[in-house]
Each structure stands twice: as C-alpha cells, then as structure tokens.
Amino acid sequence: MASRAFSSSSRAAKALKWKFNGTTVPVDSYIAAVERAVDALPTKFSAKAEVGVIQGNPHTTPENNDPEHASGRIGTGNASGKKRLSSFHAYPDGRVTFSDPALAPFSKGPDAVQSAVQSTDNYWTWDDQYQRHYHMHEDGSYECCCSDLDDGVIAELESIEAFNASGRGLNDRIGVIDTRGSGSLESRLSWLKVENFPGVRGDGTLNLHGFDIRQIPDSDVLQIVLINHRPPIDPITGEDLDPKITGANSTIEVFETEVGSGKMMHVKTYAHKAIQTPNRVTWIDGDTFVFTNDHNGKVGFRRALSPYIGGSSLGCCNQTDCQIAVQSRFKLPNGLIVGKDSLLYVPDTSTGEIYIYSFASSPSLLPDLQFNTSIKLSYPLDNLSVDEKGDIFVAAFPMSYKWDETAKDPFGKDLPSTVFRIRKLKEGEYEVEKVLEDDGTVLSGITVAVHDVRTGSIFLGGVVAPFIVICEAI
C-alpha cells in the first residue's frame, strides 16, 4: 500500500454472520470481542467459523460466580449439532472463553485504530454488514447512513441496478459518531430515531443512498436531505411492482433534528419526474438542493448505455418545484458537493472529470447552473467531500473493471482504492495530489473519504466496503 502520510490498521478481524435467539438488547461489543477472539485462533479453526449465535441477553450465573456475559456458539449453518464448533462466553471487558478446552481464552483488547474499524462495523451489524455514506461537522461529529447487505451482497441499490426489493434493507438509518470524544468509538456512536415518516406501507423504513446536512443559521437545528430508493407499489391496487420493469420509486426526503438529539423528524417528501435516478444530493442554501441523476432513465437499454454515451443529468428542487438543471455533458454523475467557495463540484465516474459550476439567479426561483471549468483526474471517480479548510477529497477506483465482482462478493473480492486531494490555488487553478492508494487489502471499494482537519485523520468507507478504515496522520 502506498500511504505516504498516514497509517491505518493492517487488517480487520473476520466478520461472522450473526443470528439471535431471544436477544432484545444491543450486544455489539460482545460480538466485536468474539470476532477478535475467533481471528486469534489457529487458522485451521478460525477458517471454519462462519456463523455466530447469541443466546438471549447478557446475564450473570451466580452459582458459578460467573459475572455478566453474553453466551452463544460459533460454527457453520445454524451452528448447532455437528455444525457447532464451540460455545463461548463473552465479557464486557473483551475477554472470551470457549467450551472447547483446546481453545485458549482470549483476553487481548484491540488497539485504537483496529477498535475503530472492528467495533464500529460490528455496532452497525445486527443481521448483516452495511453500506455507508458520510458527513462530518466542524465539531467532529460524523454522520453516516447505513443499510444492510443481503447475505453479503447488495440486494437493492438503484445506481448499480440491484433491484431485489424482497431483499431490501429494513434497518437503514443514520448514525452519529463523536470522533473526538473519549472511550471506544463504539461507545460514541448513536442512531437517529426516525419520527413522523410512513415508510413503505406504514413500516417507517428507509432505503438510503446519498445525503447532506446543513445547520440553520443561529440555531441548533440541522436539516437532513437524503435519497430514498423506495420499492415500487401500484398506487391503485397497493400491489408490489417489479422494479426490474418500473425501476425504483426514488424520492428525496427532508428531515430535521437538533444538535445532540437522538431523533429526526420527517418534514417533506419530494416526488417529481425530475427525480429519476438520484445518487447524491447536496444543499445549496435555504430550502434549495441539487442532486445527480446517475443514469438517463430508470430502466431499459438506453439506461445501460448512458455511462458510455451520456444523457444523465443534474436536478434541482426548492420548496415548490423541481427541474432538470443540466442534461448535457454527463455520463455518470456521482457524489457532488458545494465547496467552501460556493461552487458546485460534480464528479463523473465515466469520464474521470470533476465539472465545476457556479450558481446564477433565474426567474423560476431555481438557480441556473453555469459551467466554469473541469478538473481531469483520469480515474473513475465516486464521492467528493470538502474539509474545513476547503480542500476536496476524492474517492476513486484505479481498477474499476473489478467493481462488478466486488459488488457481488464484497467480503471475498478486493477492489483497489485511491484518494486524491484537490486544493484550489486561485480562481480556475487547482492542485491535485494523490494522498492514499491501496491494492484493496485494507482499503477495498472505498467510495468516500472524509478529512478531519483538526486531527489529520481520514475516514474511509464504501458502498461495498466491509469496514470503516481510519487513517491517522503520522
């Protein structure tokens, strides 16, 4: 790995698929401990461990002087009978003991960086692993939207034509991490409870993609705008429709929360013909936002050709209307941002360029987007982020031809990753520097990189990346 100015964990512990029998409380720290313990076992044993089962809630066993612990088993299949490799007790301090006397007890705690990777991932794991997108505030709070994978693969994600609505995530949510607090990273992670949102047939669920957050001036109110890829439903009969025929029923949702709050209140749904294949959305100002349509249509042959011959677009909405703002130039527009210079930066995965626009007023009350210039990186690009100083960090793929196989097997196939930093020198002049690159062993399938100026850390994750990686400045 070429990592000139940063260090990261060398690898992450093996992730088991977890099942729960009567468990009604969070047990994420216990899961993290068990996975570290399994990872430390001899390879001939750890290689066989695929499934973990938690039995009930953590408890004490007074007759054995056994303090509070979570009990369960590991193995294959349902981890029962011949498929059980061993039972375990996992303790809050990270210790793990096994019923098989040949397996030594585990008591080694994770180092700081490895803990951030493992325990955070496992906190986000209730049944499966998760996709992620991120947003960092100047105070170090760090938002991410997360959704399930179905048996290790993406079941439903409009942008890559994964249309298995029956396997869609039912636990999608937004988490907030205090990156500068004390204690384990897991202990500084909280989830925003969704309120006043009907979801699908009243279940309150979201199917998340890109999002953005703005703080209302002179207040503690935060406005969240997010992409929601709902499954299509016949409005007359209420029956499920086939998304392979109709495409996703994508909307853009607005929520409000407050700094330090544990909930987010639904405010408004945007459903409009301009919202075709939304990928990423960003606030402009007030109640106006702009978003990328990463293909030129929801389904069909022409959609499949748009990454090659173009036709994708930028859309824009305010409280009263939505419209297509730019239709020319784009083939696969992706994770756009508004920079500290109030310009709009739009990466295109297919062309490897970042297109830069300025905003101009128009009679429609929706801003006109005027093309300024572009930055050529010659790599397939994904999401952009902007740090406190105004530098832009770009996630890119040096071997994008491996994307399909990684998307189908994110835990078995590595996807090399690159991160660029773009620094504006003066109007129309930019400096591009490659700050990280990896063959996929550590940084696999990175689709976003977020830089914390005050600590120098870079937070990295991806839509098919099994873990978060934190690179720390040295």
> What is the helix content?
10-25%
Work out the number of β strands.
Answer: 32
**Tell me, what's the shape?**
globular
Number of helices: 6
C-alpha termini separation: 16 Å
Q: Tell me, rounded to a whole number, the average pLDDT.
A: 80
Rg over CA atoms: 23 Å
Largest sheet report:
5 strands, mixed
Class derived from helix and strand content: mainly beta
Q: Largest sheet, order of strands side by side?
A: 2-3-4-5-6
Query: Stretches where pLDDT falls below 50 for ≥5 residues?
Result: 1-13, 109-134, 150-156
The amount of beta strand, in percent, is 35-45%
How is the topology of this model organized?
Layout: E1 6-7, E2 17-21, H1 28-40, H2 43-46, E3 51-61, E4 66-75, E5 84-90, E6 96-98, H3 112-123, E7 130-136, E8 141-148, E9 156-157, E10 162-163, E11 173-178, E12 189-191, E13 193-195, E14 208-215, E15 221-230, H4 243-246, E16 249-258, E17 263-270, E18 278-285, E19 288-293, H5 301-309, E20 313-317, E21 322-326, E22 337-338, E23 344-348, E24 353-360, E25 368-376, E26 381-386, E27 392-396, H6 403-408, E28 417-426, E29 429-438, E30 448-451, E31 458-461, E32 469-473
Parallel strand pairs: 2-3, 13-17
Antiparallel strand pairs: 1-32, 3-4, 4-5, 5-6, 7-8, 8-11, 9-10, 11-12, 14-15, 15-16, 16-17, 18-19, 19-20, 20-21, 22-23, 23-24, 24-25, 26-27, 27-28, 28-29, 30-31, 31-32
What is this structure, in a nutshell?
With 474 residues, the protein is mainly beta. It is built from 6 helices and 32 strands. Helix 1 crosses helix 3.
